[in-house]
Amino acid sequence: MTDPRPRVVLGVGAGIAAYKACELLRRLTESGHDVRVVPTADALRFVGAATWEALSGHPVSSQVWDDVDQVAHVRLGKEADLVFVAPATADLLARAAHGRADDLLTATLLTARCPVVFAPAMHTEMWEHPATQDNVALLRSRGAIVVEPATGRLTGADTGPGRLPEPAELFEVARRALRRGRRAPDLAGRHVVISAGGTREAIDPVRFIGNRSSGLQGYALARTAVARGARVTVVAANVALPDPAGARVVRVESAAQMRAAVLEAAADADAVVMAAAVADFRPADYRDSKIKKVPGAEPEPIALVKNPDILAELSARPRGDQVVVGFAAETDDVLAAGREKLARKGCDLLVVNEVGADLAFGRPDNAAVVLTADGAETPVPRGPKEDLADVVWDLVVERLEPRPATP
Questions:
Q1: Which one of 80, 130, 292, 339 is most buried, counting C-beta atoms within 10 A?
Q2: 98: domain CATH number?
Q3: Domain Flavoprotein spans what residues (predicted)?
C-alpha cells in the first residue's frame, strides 16, 4: 500500500546549526510527514546518523554507494514532495548552484522536481561574500526558495546575519511550500513590504492609545510570501510573535514611526500590504510625567489630533507599477464602509473584514471580502489566516507587471 503521507527530504549541511534541524525533523514527523534525512558526510560530525534515524524512522546515508540497488540518488529526489535543506552552508549552496553531484544530497537536489527550499546558515562574512550571493541568486533564478538567514548570535562571540531561523518558523516555511505543491514560486525576485500589528500613541510614559491587533494576519502574509519566493520586509508595531523565517523585521511603536519605516522600505517594493491597525488619532500633547489622579477632581480631557494616513499617502504618490493593498477593519455596514474607504484611499486592493468580540483580532482565523479598484469582489470564507494571505497574494500577482525574460 502506498504511504499517503507527504514525502520530505531533509538535507543537512555541515554547520553547527545542524542541531536545530533535529527540532525541524521532529515537527515534520509529528505533523504527519514521511521524512528522509540526507546529511552531508561532514554534517554527521555535528549530529550522528543514529539521531537522524531514531527521529525519522528511516536509515540514513550520505553516500550514493549505499542502497545502490534502490538507486537512492535518483529515487529520493524524484519521489519527494519537498526537499528542504537546513542548514545550507556556503559550500553546499555553491555545489548546488553549480550542479555538483558528488554526494547523495547534491544528487538528490539534481533529480528533485518538487519545491526546493534552502535555509542558509553561516558566518556573516561568508553570507555576504559576492560568491555566495551570486550562488543564491542563481538558485533563486532556477525556482529554488532561499530563505534569508536571521540576524543574531553566531558561533563564538560573533553576531550578525547568518543565523539559522528557529525551527518552528522553518516548519511554517516547509508547510506553506508543501501547500503550494509544484507551483512555481510566483513572487520570486519580488520585494514585498507588509505592515503588521497595532500602533500605540503615547499619552504619558505609562499610558497609550492602542488597539487589539496582534499581528497574526500580517505575519501570515509574510510567511506565505516567503514560501512563494519573495524578499519580505515586515514593519511590525508592538507584535509579540516570533520573527517569520526569511523576513526582515523592522520594529516600530507609533503611527509616525510606522509611516517612516514603511515609506523607506516601499521605495523599491513591488507590493505594499498595509495589514497593520494604525491608530487614526494621537494625543495632541505628550505628558513627560505620569498623569496622576487628583482626589475629588475629574481627569482633564485628552485632546486628539489626526495621524498621517499612510495608506492614502502610499496610493497617491508616484509608484509606477507598485501594487498597494489596504485593510479595513469594520464593525457596521462592512461592505459599504469598505467600498467608501477604497474610493477614498485610492489603493489597488482593499481587504475588508468585520472585527469585534472574538472576530479577527488575536484569532488564528479570519473571513474577509477583497475589493478591487475595478469593482470586483472576492469573498474569503472563514478559515486559517494563511488562506486569506494566499488569496491576497494571488490577486497581487495578477496585477504585477511581468518581469523581462532573462536572456
A1: 80
A2: 3.40.50.1950
A3: 7-173
